[in-house]
Amino acid sequence: MKDTDCLVIGAGVSGLTAAHELKKRGVDVRVLEARDRVGGRTWSGELDGAEVDWGGEWIGHGQPRVYALIKELGLRTFATYDQGRKVLEAGGRISTYTGTIPWMAPWKLIQIQAGIWRLDGLARGLTRDASWTHPRAGEWDATTLDAARRSVMWSADARGVMDAAMRTIFGAESGELSLLHALAYIRSAGSLNNLIATEGGFQHERIHGGAQAISTALRAAVGDDRVHLGRPVTRIAHDAVGVVVRDARGDEWRARRVVVSVPIALGARIEFEPALPSLRTQLMERAYMGSAVKCFVRYETPFWRARGLSGEAASADGPISVTFDQCSEDGSVACLLAFVGGRAARTWHQRDPEARKQLVIDRLAAYFGPEAREPVAYAEVDWSAERWSGGGPIAIFPTGTLSTHGAALRAPIGRMHWAGTETARECMGFIEGAVESGQRVADEVALAAS
Predict the structure, then answer these.
(1) Nearest to 421 by CA among 434, 439, 406, 438
(2) What is the pLDDT of residue 113?
(3) CA separation (Å) from 153 to 109, 119, 161, 313?
(4) d(Cα 185, Cα 331) in Å, to the nearest integer?
(5) Helix axes of 156-170 and 179-189: crossing angle, nearest 10 degrees
(6) How far apart are CA 204 and CA 59, in angstroms?
(7) Are 42 and 218 in contact, with CB atoms under 8 Å apart?
């Protein structure tokens, strides 16, 4: 039996931020992580010399906590490449545009803008702390985003453009998303534009060394000997005195308090003794992870830049939702990133690997030119196949969940506390949200121990 003041389950950004903050306050802390690495849904690597982020990667304006943490840890950022025209595929047609909103027929543009204004307007009425307390929460949670927007967006192409963004943001279709969950997400970001924009939005910058560098540096700050990898937690016994946590190796860890910082849906795999209150149990059981695949294609040169293209594309037709320039800061190492999300991502594994690669390259050639048919290397990560994430980029709260079970999202249960980017009040689903949730839960633990 190993004793400590506080155990943190999960060595992603939220869990390690909590551990880092607690250590600074003199709390003896240990971290248990199921994977053989830190970082959670941030995971960085290399593809034929190209620095790639297999998981979450971007930060941007309106995210002060992650910028402060990056500075504290001695890391650096650089701007996401966003120069030149962007590409839109809709209704079988390919065009280019500048700015955040694709150029389409004026009446379609009006619908897109009306949809954005409507969602932003409804979202502003929510509180970031408790969206489920809004007088219309039950009504909004009983309908989907798709159903709600149809009153102002009757064009299939206009809806398709928004769908491309939703598949990337949530890993789900608009017809699967609770309107309340979508509005709470927009409210936590400040606006829908923040969620979708590169320049001035949440995709504004990348991190040198990849986003996983945050967790690697946090692990060093907490202490390598305090972060234990390959330790999936199977059971948490809790009472008025403390907790006893058992991992898959059969080892037990005793602590005064525990922070659970794993994807909400994965929390349902842990045995709790005694059982958790039904509100929390049902929240974990009802939540499910989105579906996302990130595909990286390495090239000799960033040929799209020479064509005056930014590397960004949005497709209402699929299966690719969006693409981004994934080159090195100086552009000398060329790479494109293609997202597959939602329905297409759920069936991606059913295709032959070579057919998947060819499909991606064919679409890139259609967007950026025939040079896209000459890749140096290709790799992809299907987050639904990641055992300790179960999908990505975030957990989805289906209709009827947030309005009835939202109160259990962050509320401590005895000596158990809950972290993770889905619990964030600001920038939910992003690295900033993970940092915010880690700092919040550290405050909770420190206050309860005082």
Answers:
(1) 434
(2) 87
(3) 10, 12, 11, 21
(4) 33
(5) 70
(6) 6
(7) no
Between vectors from CA 163 to CA 434 and to CA 150, what angle results, nearest 5°? 120
What parts of the chain have a pLDDT lower than 50? none
Rounded to whole angstroms, the Cα distance separating 143 from 176 reads 9
> Which of 215, 159, 154, 189 minimizes the C-alpha distance to 16?
215
Q: Is the omega angle on the peptide bond into residue 232 within 30 degrees of 0, that is, cis?
A: no
For 181-199, the pLDDT digits (tens) are: 999 999 999 999 999 989 8
Nearest to 343 by CA among 286, 388, 292: 292
The side-by-side arrangement of strands in the sheet containing 309-315 is: 93-97, 85-90, 309-315, 320-325, 334-341, 292-299, 377-382
pLDDT digit string (tens) for 243-296? 999 999 999 999 999 999 999 999 999 999 999 999 999 999 999 999 999 999
List the structure tokens of 181: 């969950």
3 state SS for the chain: CEEEEEEEECCEHHHHHHHHHHHHCCCCEEEECCCCCCECCCCEEEECCEEEECCCCCECCCCHHHHHHHHHHCCCEEECCCCCEEEEEECCEEEEECCCCCCCCHHHHHHHHHHHHHHHHHHHCCCCCCHHHCCCHHHHHCCEHHHHHCCCCCCHHHHHHHHHHHHHHHCCCHHHCEHHHHHHHHHHHCCHHHHHCCCCCCCCEEECCCCHHHHHHHHHHHCHHHEECCCCEEEEEECCCCEEEEECCCCEEEEEEEEECCCHHHHCCCEEECCCCHHHHHHHHHCEECCEEEEEEEECCCHHHHCCEEEEEEECCCCEEEEEECCCCCCCCEEEEEEEECHHHHCHHHCCHHHHHHHHHHHHHHHHCHHHHCCCEEEEEEHHHCCCCCCCCCEECCCCCHHHHHHHCCCCECCEEECCHHHCCCCCCCHHHHHHHHHHHHHHHHHHHC
In whole angstroms, give the CA distance from residue 271 to residue 247.
11
Q: How far apart are alpha carbons 261 and 420 in whole angstroms? A: 5
What are 156's two structure tokens? Answer: 């299939």
Rg, C-alpha atoms of the chain: 22
